[in-house]
Design brief:
about 650 residues; Rossmann fold; 24 strands; about 35% helix; about 20% strand
Length: about 650
């Protein structure tokens, strides 16, 4: 039907957003989100500019300070932003950099051969999304200053406000995020800033970072690593047992492309390979790690054949074998990286595959020849992994033969949903026999499946895949998901787009949730990364008054709800002990119904930190785990991993 009220449509209806106004109108296009992640992204956009000066060889120190009222100051001792009039804009280069999108030394034949950051719009975007931003430049014996406010508008032109030592150079930027843009929070998380700052220090050896928090109790960390990514591998393996003493390291430049690779094998059973391009974490991989992985498999097989570990008719080792227990960092500095993938964090440059293969092949071959005793330990490790792979293959075949959870014990069986559409289907992993009945009765049978587990499943952090596949409850979960595991994993066969861990809101429930999440993170990592894994949030309290019952998740919600009731209301508060205490209706209304439940999506924002945490909490080393618990026990009441 024609809408006669909307027939008028001409050029006056088309809104043209000029300059930084476009950023304020659609901030998500530039920083992804206006939540906490986007807020912290502002810091990295400014820090990246300072790191670019270091990559160009002109900066030794970068200071990041969280001042009171969540003002961020980033100070470097680089060359200082140019202060002359820009020929195209007619204003100073400082003003151009902070008010014009895509203005900077990262484009064309600008001031940097290699630059960090992904988009190159950082300075102006930060200015656009700030209540105010101040720039101070030390250059040519003078101190220059300019202030911007209310979304990037200059208060005045660039001015000289003083003099400095003729040899002093650098740029200092202070800004405060605009609370009208970041409505969720403008409170910076020190640990988030600390982890990324430490990572940047590892990736840029010899560059010193000073991170300070001046808001309440002053915190300060200084990061400088002369060993670069070798020290990174050492940190990642601090709670693991290396099988050879050396951290292997290669560094080489070819065709203006610099590649650093560091690795060490441990006695663990999972691989941890992290790759970076121009300081960007390429967690989707790309041609750089494809070349390295290809070379690793080839060189290990060649050494095994040459030294009698593999006989003529023996089956060759595969990538899965040679990467078991391996911790490796790959860092590439590229003048013109081509990114692809869903989040633009996958390297696509085809020439890198061959270059990284060559550099790694030459380095590893030389190391194995020069260190025969260490090479023997590596050979023992990879052949042990190969034997376990064969055993795991038999266990997988057993899982397939058993069919869809064809097990004799009736209560352990999957109660499936009727829908075959994975995009609307979800599976609840339920702890305990008592919770199984209400969950099955309270579910939506069309879209919700239920699979119970008995207590605490196997800790996969301490087990190889063959043993894991020998565990019946884990096999049941693998079969239910439908994707297969290990080398047979196929994301397209996922049967449920929501995998929901539903455990009691107590210490045992948290432990079981951690065991399950460790299993999912180690063996179904793409499902965690793509946001398919959730934790249900059962209520901690039931509040009754008159004929009304209210379920709340925590003490804060309890107190807030009670404060809304009339002063003389008689209130009964019951602390819920477990899912089994609720009947089917209560469980559905509080924890399972899509209309009233609360779910936590368990994403992996920082895979390296997540790996450290899982190894710390679930690994063999007891003392670091005890120390972690002592340090964090008083910080939170309920620890969700």
């Amino acid at each position: 039907m024609e809408n006669i009220n909307n027939l008028h449509y001409d050029s006056s209806d088309i809104q043209v957003l000029e300059g930084l106004e476009a950023v304020r109108k659609r901030p998500g296009m530039y920083i992804g989100t206006t939540g906490s992640k986007g807020l912290h992204h502002l810091v990295w956009e400014i820090v990246d500019n300072a790191v670019d000066e270091a990559l160009a060889g002109y900066c030794d120190d970068i200071e990041i300070t969280i001042e009171k009222n969540n003002i961020i100051t980033v100070k470097d001792d680089g060359r200082g932003i140019p202060i002359d009039i820009h020929p195209k804009t007619g204003v100073s280069t400082v003003e151009t950099v902070y008010t014009v999108l895509h203005a900077g030394g990262k484009f064309g034949n600008g001031g940097y051969k290699v630059s960090g950051g992904l988009h190159g719009v950082g300075a102006s975007v930060v200015n656009a999304l700030s209540s105010f931003l101040e720039v101070t430049v030390y250059k040519e014996g003078k101190i220059y200053f300019q202030r911007f406010k209310n979304g990037g508008k200059p208060e005045d032109i660039l001015k000289i406000i003083g003099e400095c030592d003729i040899n002093r150079t650098g740029t200092t930027v202070s800004f405060k995020a605009d609370p009208t843009i970041f409505e969720e929070t403008i409170e910076y998380d020190y640990d988030i800033l600390k982890n990324r700052t430490r990572e940047l220090a590892f990736l840029n050896k010899g560059l010193r970072f000073i991170l300070t928090d001046e808001r309440e109790d002053t915190k300060k960390d200084i990061f400088i690593y002369e060993g670069g990514i070798s020290e990174y591998v050492n940190l990642l393996n601090k709670n693991k047992t290396p099988i050879h003493k050396d951290i292997i390291y290669f560094e080489e430049t070819e065709e203006d492309i610099k590649i650093d690779i560091s690795l060490q094998y441990t006695d663990t059973y999972t691989e941890n390979i992290y790759s970076f391009v121009n300081n960007i974490n390429t967690y989707e991989g790309g041609t750089h790690d494809e070349g390295v992985k290809r070379a690793l498999t080839r060189i290990i097989n060649n050494y095994a054949k040459t030294n009698g570990y593999l006989k003529q008719n023996d089956e060759a080792l595969i990538g899965e074998d040679v990467r078991e227990g391996l911790t490796m960092i790959i860092s590439v500095k590229h003048p013109n990286p081509q990114f692809e993938g869903q989040t633009k964090t996958k390297l696509g440059n085809t020439e890198i595959r061959k270059i990284s293969d060559n550099i790694f092949s030459n380095g590893l071959e030389r190391y194995l020849l020069e260190n025969p005793e260490e090479a023997r330990k590596i050979m023992d490790k990879v052949f042990s992994a190969a034997r376990a792979r064969m055993a795991a293959k038999k266990a997988r075949e057993l899982t397939r033969r058993k069919g869809l959870l064809d097990i004799s014990n009736q209560w352990e069986k999957l109660t499936d949903c009727s829908s075959k559409d994975p995009t609307i289907s979800e599976i609840f992993i339920v702890e305990g026999r008592s919770a199984e009945g209400p969950a099955k009765q309270g579910r939506d049978s069309k879209t919700q499946a239920v699979i119970p587990i008995r207590g605490k499943i196997l800790n996969v952090e301490k087990s190889r895949l063959d043993r894991i596949l020998g565990n019946e409850e884990i096999r049941n979960l693998i079969t239910a998901f439908g994707t297969g595991i290990g080398e047979e994993f196929d994301y397209t066969k996922l049967r449920y787009y929501k995998i929901i861990i539903m455990t009691d809101a107590d210490v045992d429930g948290s432990h079981i949730r951690t065991l399950l999440l460790t299993f999912l993170y180690r063996y179904f990592k793409p499902l965690v990364e793509k946001g398919h894994v959730y934790a249900a949030q059962p209520p901690l309290f039931r509040i009754s008054h008159g004929k009304t019952q209210k379920y709340v998740l925590n003490e804060k919600e309890r107190d807030e709800y009670i404060s809304t009731l009339p002063e003389n209301t008689k209130v009964e508060i019951v602390r819920m002990k477990g899912l089994g205490e609720m009947d089917a209706i209560e469980l559905r209304e509080t924890t399972m119904s899509v209309n009233s439940r609360t779910l936590i999506r368990l994403n992996v924002e920082d895979a390296i930190v997540a790996d450290e945490t899982f190894q710390l909490l679930m690994g063999e080393e007891v003392e670091p785990r005890r120390q972690f618990i002592e340090e964090n026990a008083l910080k939170v009441r309920n620890l969700d991993v």
